[in-house]
Design a protein that fits this description.
- There is one protein chain.
- The chain has 162 residues and is α/β, with parallel strands linked by helices.
- Helix content is 23%, strand content 30%.
- The chain has a five-stranded parallel beta sheet with strand order 2-1-3-6-7. The protein has a two-stranded antiparallel sheet with strand order 4-5.
- Helix 1 (13-18) links the parallel strand 1 and strand 2.
Length: 162
């Protein structure tokens, strides 16, 4: 299953929905993570907040490929995309294990294939390096076999990347 998380406006909905099995619009119309860890312990992989991100852990956890489309924000995800990722902490468990000679949380859903980040907006070389490193570390932590980062000069290039 291919899941796309994006912070684009509604003009791109049709293109995004045709390029995946499930799309999550990071539009800020949901509550931010409260840090209660209930999705880890009390009700695994389900957020206690009753909004449209309540099942986001299960959706992302079952994905083979995760594509994140984000505006550059100082070499990081946009705030709305970051909030969606924060709400998906329940894709892992509170227990730890070694993966690749490093300590990581145990995966609730097993391994995945691709963590892909598509970045748009003005991006400096230093920010590109930060994005590449962050995507690689996020992929390892969430159990993805590989990561990829694509920088777009113009959103017109987006269609070929999905």
């Amino acid at each position: 299953m291919k899941v796309i998380i994006h912070d684009l406006d509604h003009r791109y909905d049709e293109m995004i929905e045709s390029g995946c099995d499930f799309a999550i619009a990071a539009d800020g119309k949901y509550a931010p993570c409260q840090g209660c860890f209930g999705c880890w312990t009390k009700h695994p992989a389900e957020c206690k907040m009753k909004d449209r991100l309540q099942q986001v852990c299960r959706i992302i956890g079952q994905s083979d490929d995760l594509v994140i489309i984000t505006k550059n924000l100082y070499g990081g995800y946009s705030t709305d995309v970051k909030n969606v990722l924060d709400r998906s902490i329940g894709t892992s468990t509170p227990f730890s294990t070694y993966r690749g000679r490093q300590m990581h949380h145990t995966l609730r859903y097993g391994k995945h294939d691709l963590w892909k980040v598509i970045v748009y907006g003005v991006v400096t070389e230093a920010e590109k390096e930060t994005f590449r490193y962050m995507a690689e570390r996020n992929a390892i932590n969430d159990g993805y076999q590989r990561s990829e980062v694509v920088f777009l000069q113009d959103l017109a290039e987006l269609e070929g990347q999905l």
